[in-house]
Amino acid sequence: MQQIMYKSTRNSDLRVTASQAILQGLAPDGGLFVPEVLPGWDGDIDILPEQSYKQTAYQVMRLLLTDYTEDELKSCIDKAYDSKFDDPRLVPLVHKGDAYYMELFHGKTIAFKDMALSILPHLMTTAAEKNHIDDEIVILTATSGDTGKAAMAGFSDVPGTKIIVFYPKDGVSHVQELQMRTQRGDNVHVVGIDGNFDEAQTGVKKIFQDAAMAERMKKNHMRFSSANSINIGRLVPQIVYYFHAYGQMAAQGAIKPGEEINVTVPTGNFGNILAAYYAKQMGLPIRKLICASNENKVLVDFFQTGAYDKNRTFKVTTSPSMDILVSSNLERLIYRIAGDNGESTAKMMNALSSQGVYRITDAMYAQLSDFYGNYADEKQTAEEIAQVQRETGYVIDTHTAVASKVYRNYVIESGDETPTVIASTASPYKFANVVVSSIYPSLSDKSDLEMIDILNKISGVRIPQAIEDIRSAKLLHSTFIKGADMEKEVADWLKLD
Ligand SMILES: *Cc1c(COP(=O)(O)O)cnc(C)c1O
User: Fold this and answer.
1) Is the CB of 266 under 6 A from ligand 1?
2) What pTM does this model have?
3) Residue 345: alpha-carbon gap to chain centroid
């Protein structure tokens, strides 16, 4: 099998193995690790529909994480995808109306981040062993709401690791905040900052690149890594579910094996849809990649004009996990369409951080024809939740609703009737308040806990354990700081010399 090495998007000379890329998180030059080539998928498309999620996971991940042994990879997969998931199928594909909803929210924290973050801690501790690293691994994470909880659930009490999560204290839903602030585990630290997600993410990246801090960490026998989707160990497990969903489409008779599908992805940091793009590049028959944004529609403008411009007002919406103006993973797409050119990618990313804007070349723009970008505003999102419920009885969350609405518009605009998978990224219980008020505006004055019981009646779906947990759990974390003090907070909590 072909050995796959990883390069930084900002310096093509740097080459590391998959396990080293996972350990480091971010490349030392501030770039993201990308596979040197995307290997072709070598499975049999006719038997994909019969394969279990775990079988497909091994088949896909072995192609990209080539320095892990078969035993190591299978053991990581077994530990990740077990009874933590509340559905034995792990990722059910639900046919409602004209679309197929790929439910990625059956893990511990009821959002799609669980798909990758249940396995990342195992990939990382295995990587540390393989590379004879004795330092304690400190995971730094910025979250727009869902990553933080899913990362803590994955790393909580994992020996040899600590995890610090930064979230925008006014930028997450009530349930998301409670989920994080009730997290148990001696090795976890949760910090609210008075800034938005982009500030949290920039702050984390800054700490990663601070040479003096790295030196201090080394003296204390610690090293940083990342659980954000800038870590390639997050992205690889996300490629898996597109293969799995494709198999399920065939199993349900929506397509014959070999025929094309479209995918629609509610997008923030561009990780989930990039995984779909990688799946396509590896040979999965995907036609269009439909990129759905909320009112923070910087990506829509990018796909329309070829200019990425973050100079605009940041909006707090009802789909907070997509409230992002700097979509980190777009850098991996830019690198690819620039012909794997680290130098020109670095130039554009530097322009983004100094001027807040960059423009791609016409030759690069021409390679974006697989993508379609559009957005749904707040009113349309609420209407979509109500319409899907009214027409099919199925209840979707706010993020999934953004995708569902954008898909509806895409079909009207294009007439494209290719069977389509919509990535359903969170349980509606996580946003019960907005979901219920969208369906029954007259109930919008009820409390969050009442909303959960009402949602249970409307949807007939059992209340997930993650919601039961926060109803009874104690608040354990109350640290709030200014965005500028993130580095100091890290040093203090780690008790660095
Ligand atoms: C993180 C998240 C998204 C956005 O995914 P990206 O990979 O950041 O584009 C969408 N929906 C939900 C519920 C999320 O948690």
Assistant:
1) yes
2) 0.95
3) 22
